[in-house]
Amino acid sequence: MSQHSARRTRSGARHLALFLAHWAGGHTVSNEELFRRVIKQRAEAHQEALEEHRRLVLKAHKKATKLRRIAEEDGGLTPAAKAELKAATKEAERHTAALRALGEFTVPVLDPGQVRHRRRRIAAARCAVLAAPAAGITAATVAGAWWTGPTAAVLGVLTSWARGPQAFDLTVRPVPADLIAETPMVLAVPGAPAPVVAPVVAAGAGLPSVPPMPTIAPATAGFAPAGTGTAVEGGQDLVLALSKALGACRVIPRGTRVTLLAAPEVTAERWTAVVRLPDDTGATVDHVVAARKNLGGELGLDRARLHVEQVAGADDKTLRVSGFTTDPFARPRLCTAEMLGAVDVWEQGIPVAFDAFGRLLYLRLRDVSILLGGSSRSGKGAVLRLIIAGCLLDARVRLHLADGKHPGQYRWSLLADSYIYDPDKRAKQLAKRLEALVAEMGERAGRLAAVGVESLAERPDLVGTEGLTLEVVVVDEVSAFTLDAKYGKRITRALIELAARGLAFGIVLILATQLSTAGVLDRLVTSNVVWRWCMYATGADESNTILGKGMAGRGYSAHLLDPEQRGSGLLLAEGRVSTVRSLWLDGDDMTAVQDMVRALRAKPTTPAPPPVSAQAPVPAPSPAPAGEAVVAEADWSVLDGWLEQAAPPVPGPVAVPAGALQRLRALEVIRQAGPDGIKRAALADAVGAPATTVGGWLKEWTGQGVIEALGSPPHTRYAATDGRQ
Q1: Lowest mean per-residue pLDDT among 9-23, 554-568, 677-691
Q2: Can you give the pTM of this predicted structure?
């Protein structure tokens, strides 16, 4: 080797050695980066401690609240329960004190020794990486591969010669941007907004502490409609906090940001923001829902206090995110008798639940059937109670109640049109009832075809008329019927027919099951159920049997609900999943509702006719306004004949034709109702006659003009129609 080549080789070897020593010593990592890493690690440990203490505080408070409620209901507690209450109270106080002691995280003062210690650990790891090839070459040489050592030396010489006198740039890389973003309290970049975190303040009076929420800057621009993709100003702190949290949960790449589409709503109870996920990331609302638990942790909230939903009418990247200071479903909400007083199951619906924002959810029995599921004591009975009460308070509904866990719904047994409960006969009775409804679908189809429609939804005015009443079948604990060895298959076949075609003809199914196994209901039944409502379930598989296959993987699983909140559940309706909690009907309101149902549906045993006048009340004709047609004069001859038969001119017992007194009383009730009219079912109850019989009278009287002469509307749901619509 020439002298020039030797000098070149020695120079290259020196540069290579300096570079390797610089890298192995950990000097590529700056002191600032090491300082930030130490701060970040301590901040994460502090946050984990806060979250753990908050979780334990909430758990202790829930247990104490439950025991206090039991004490109020039962008038006291057992000694063991008192000890549990005392222990839960002390546990809550202990963790609340720990939260006070932890307080808000402050940046510690670090000495250089801590940075040197961190650098030594990095150097040890890098030296181990460099020593691995040398150890491998030595081991191979000892094992017999004599050529490995000389080959490595030759390669080293060639590498040194190739490098030559060109020195390496021994620089320190800049601090990573993601590390700067995650430690905003350390050497913050000038002009960059830093999310402000409220300090943890333990609440007084034994209440759990309020978790931190991102502070939201007031918006300075107007509202932009959701889904337009146009960002609005203001709320940048919230956008930054959401973007960082979604990036930490790997929903969107780190460094990308969501777009704020509407000015944030901030109240003392919650904050709400409508945002759109960044394009070209593949992230959708389902990904956010699936990561909701981790997302809540990043935002300082638990799952129960973080609400995520897709904005109605927008694409799959537009969502509404809300954070609550307390669990919105923690307190039950009562359903009063006034809320059910004037219920209309077809148009308005039955109030059955409320959502996270306190909005009431109404169940309209128009093209809707329901499947209720959940574990024992999860709150299915509260929902059924509301549905049954609402149906019984609408005279157009005929309720058929099959009770698979008698006496679960026994309070309604004397008020429903049919009640099936006998364990020895209930399966047979339900099979006959369902098969009769399947046969009735043919008759109803003929009635609808006669007026040129295919379903009742096209002609709401026909709901409740003769032959087209709403038939609501409520089956509580459906497994007791479908799994019956003798009649289970017949019941399943009938349910398949009714679920597939019954809604068009006003036949509604309300099915509740406790055993969430695939064998309880046939797939042909569940696939045609419009509403699926799952209360707390013991596992994801049980939840999927109610909500559908794969729903748990999308983040919708009822086993994540709080089992102590009876009535809380996931509702799949119109293709969207919402978290709701059922209303509660009990106490005085329950008594008042049952009295209202009895007044509407109880039939008198011996109806007494009202006093009969010898002459029919003939209203004075009113002159018709100019330009309007004059209504044809009513045929009073038929009415006069009934009056003469019902009121003989001479005193004494007279054989009155059957039904004459009932018809006369019906006319008197219609006359007193006047222009407001009266429902057919209520009229039937008032005179003690079947509803179908009264419907025939109304149709006949409408054709004769008697109804119009008495002052009631002839072509409404209060009287039978005659085709002159």
Answers
A1: 677-691
A2: 0.56
